[in-house]
## 1
Amino acid sequence: MHFLVIKKQYLFLTVLFLAAAASYWLLQTPDAETVTSPAQGDTAREIHLVTGEFKATTKDGRKIESYRWDPGAIVLKKGEKVSLKIYGVNGMEHPFMIEGTDIKGSVKQGEETAVPLQFNKEGVYRLICLTHPDKDSNGPMIAYIFVE
């Protein structure tokens, strides 16, 4: 039977070489894009939201829940065309409005609702679920749209 004997110094040099090669490779690999740009011909950037729900039981056994939009905040540029796509995960239906606009709609469980957006004025706009607008109705289910 044949055995391969490796001296400690060669093992150390091999590990050091592999670590250096891995570091070089990681530094050369571009980071993933966190913001997507519209492809040529596309006119609107897509932003995806989902409906979510948190449930808990208090120490005294009372069940509580709260609904939310996720993510809870998005940032747009003034004049930017956006297609806000909201997928209904939790809750049967979430009728909504965007405060300061005439935009209204509804998101149903298992379906995606597309909302075209283009704000011409900077500010903060609230996407409000009309079923869950405050704590007393398992909310507030509010997302913030920041227009810069």
Note: The chain is about 15% helix and 40% strand.
## 2
Amino acid sequence: MDKQPKLIDADKLLYELALQGMMTDDIKRKIDEGEFDPDPIPLPTIKPGDRVHHDRFEANGIVKRISKSGKRAYVIWDRGAPSYVELKSLEVISHD
């Protein structure tokens, strides 16, 4: 299971810290400078038309579409039935 960081509202946090008397200049500065901002979500590099390889299936195929969640691809395999597979299990052989 992927551990996703919780996204919070910095203004609400600053307000609550001030109410509790826990606000320090150092905390406010770090929040204002974005020190606690989450890392950007990497965009998938696999797209429809890409030729891909799946190690576990030992198969190559062509991506036809990416799922709405952005986590799976529908692949037409060179051998076998088309299927949805997780993007993280695919390696791009060549782009369209």
Note: The mean pLDDT is 88.
## 3
Amino acid sequence: MKNLDFSSWRKELDERKSTHPLTFKTFGDAIPPQYAIQVLDELIGRNAIISTEIGQHHIAIGFSLPAAIGVTIARPEAIVVDIDGDGSFMINVQELATIKFAEACDIPAARVTKIGDLRAVIQKMLDTLALYLLDVIVPHQEHVLPIIPVGGGFRMKH
């Protein structure tokens, strides 16, 4: 596989992170989704492959999990993480709706509800080096932002 050079893109992202640091609301002991992504970013390193869902936008819901499974098959040595919402996840694998069922199928799984437990649980997931179901419970008040209209694009304001 050809190695692609993302250094200029990563440099731009690092510059944007320093000029526009991530901020988010907190909800006591609950886990803000932005914080979960921040901890994952801190722990995962730059060589991981991440697939993401589009959440509330409903344009291509259900894509990220099959994409992650495909990448795992094509690159078994890679760390692959799928960031998915419950609705999208259910489109593909209703059979894995609960952690108990995942465990009954011999799939390591965990559910995390408290911000103080998140880092250790993500690290355990990354150390597993196999299929792993991590259910991160976030406050119901949170939304996927920015909301991009159907047919629209994301334009960063400077």
Note: The domain at 24-136 is CATH 3.40.50.970 (Rossmann fold).
